[in-house]
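Hi team, as promised in this morning's meeting, here are the two structures we talked about. I've kept the exact order from the run log so nobody has to guess. The first one is mostly here for context; it's the second one we should focus on when we meet again. Sequence first, then the predicted structure tokens.
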Amino acid sequence: MAQGMGSQDHSSVIQRMAQAARDGSDSRQMTPVKALRLSLARAADTLFGLGLTVATVEQMRVPLAHVGRSLGDAGLLVLLEGDGGARGALCIDSQFLAGLIEVQTTGSVRPGLARPRAATRTDAAMVAPLIDAVLTEFESQLAQEHDAPPPRRFGFGDMVEDLRGLSLLLVAPDFELLRLTVDLGPGAKTGRLDLLLPVIASPARASSGKIANTKIEAPANLEQVVNNAPVMLDAVMARLRLPLRDILALKPGDLLPFQRETLNDTQLVGTRGHIVATAELGQMNGLRALRLISGAAAPLPPSIETEPEPVPTEPRRGTDLIPIESQDRPRETI
């Protein structure tokens, strides 16, 4: 009997310690990851009656240049818009997206992996209410802290086709990436949600609690943001018209007829198809290189660097046949 009482006392002590640990956890500061976890669970239950279990959580700082490598490239990619022109992003992978569509169309999440497919505008419209609800609840949770930053009121902006297009729309230099791995159903499917929000610089404070007498740098103006934004350019050697059946039959090693003059008349083209500069295609140190000849507004100044070596070609009459190279080399738009 004494041994039984000792076991009960020991168990009650463990229970009290566990309860105290839970109480301490509940009284902790509301972190962004915790706020997102609670917001997602409540919004899914309220809108769709969907039970979610968060398996893993991550939080990391990501510079703008690394956004394309940090987010997933499959699923639904959404641009988020907030007050003052602030922009963020939200990515729902294909499994999470399939579960959200299934619960709205069939009433439940079907067990098993869904076949990956490209997200559509219809998918975005069906998920938009959940995204808005999660973001509203997310800011409401963070606002409970006494030193919470002012709300930025992010919401669903538009669906983005790919990560390249997203990187051109984002302007902040650094972002906070919050990543949740979620079991839906529960256990029917496992998906991932990535929330990308611009970092807010906190003002410097003195140790006495007063604002420190330090110079705070002004935020970067539009000119600085534009000058530091990544730009994607394509080197266009020539443009050909081919039947669709011939294009679909192309494979590495096939030859296309190009005029020899195209090597000296390459164009640098922007994402919207406008010509940025003309250039000459060549080689330097065994790598393909471009020598800029003139810009769209005025001729470029002469370069003092070593000129690229010309591409070795055999003399032919008429046209030159240029092989299509494998995808592991830098590409040129044809």
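And here is the second protein, the one for discussion:
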Amino acid sequence: MKKLLKILGAILLIVVLVVVALVGYLTIDEYKPDATEKTPISGQCDATVQTGTEYTFMTWNVGYGALGDNADFFMDGGKMVYSADKERVRTNLSDISKIINTENPDFILFQELDRNSSRSYYTDELETILGALNGDSLNRQSTFASNFNVAFVPLPVPPIGRVYAGLATVSGYEVSDAERVALPCPFSWPLRTFNLKRCLLVTRHPVEGSDKELVLINLHLEAYDSGEGKIAQTNMLKDIMNSEADKGNYVIVAGDFNQTFSNIDISKYPVLEGRWEAGTINVEDFGDRFTFCYDDTNPTCRSLDKAYADADKDPQNFQYYMLDGYIVSNNVSVNEVQTVDTGFKCSDHNPVTMKFVLKSE
């Protein structure tokens, strides 16, 4: 009996030492970006944005190339950690590229884009998609801001492992400046060490014949907190938007808000019992200088508590959301917003496109 207790004690001690060592390593290695950081701009563009010309915009949370219609996810009530094999990741990225080529946007804002992660088999998804797009790649510029940079995420079993992912903005028009702006992090130590560090990716585009700029804000706000994080991040976003509007700049905010705009009638996509419920952004809090734009013809997001293939079996018991859209300043005229119905084949989000014109001063 004593020998057994010694063995159990030794095993427990080893487990404790491993946990302490892991927490210590993650603490030392924790990603701690500055409040603001310049992000490298790749490529070059000959074109400059003009007033009075219609442009097409696309925002898309691509689910790191691994959240296609086959996938569920443990954080959303499903079972999967690794939700795609390497071939399925390649197929998803190929399908994403084909849809982008069909829509042919002038500006693309990506969220949940992996660059070097075990969950997507260390695929550089930005370079993969850029390489598959139509047209001359030399006439595009791109920039990337990490919001998830952890050497080893230890949870669950099997663990997620290495993650390097974030936001990317791709433009067919000159980018004069790109900056990562850190958002408030709602998590405390030690959870903070292996959690996302959310941010805004802010790009500036000269407007021909004007001293004003087109300011694009790419975002993916908090999802897995009790609500305080989303509120703090939304308030910071509002302050930045107002600051740019005060300068007379053209402002477009797009991405995955992980919240629903208060001007959307979500009765079309009711929250089912026991499912995650999105928070709400009160559009009135932003004043009358901004317009919140969406298209609820199709949902922008589906639940990951089960694979989408199961939706056909019980369509009334599948959860959909409206989480992706646009906010534009009043000097931007919006001609059309469309949620593109992809059948959630290659991501748990549908892309949302917008056609817009910058008004003359």
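Starting points for discussion:
The chain has four helices and 18 strands.
The helical segments are 2-28, 86-103, 125-132, 228-246.
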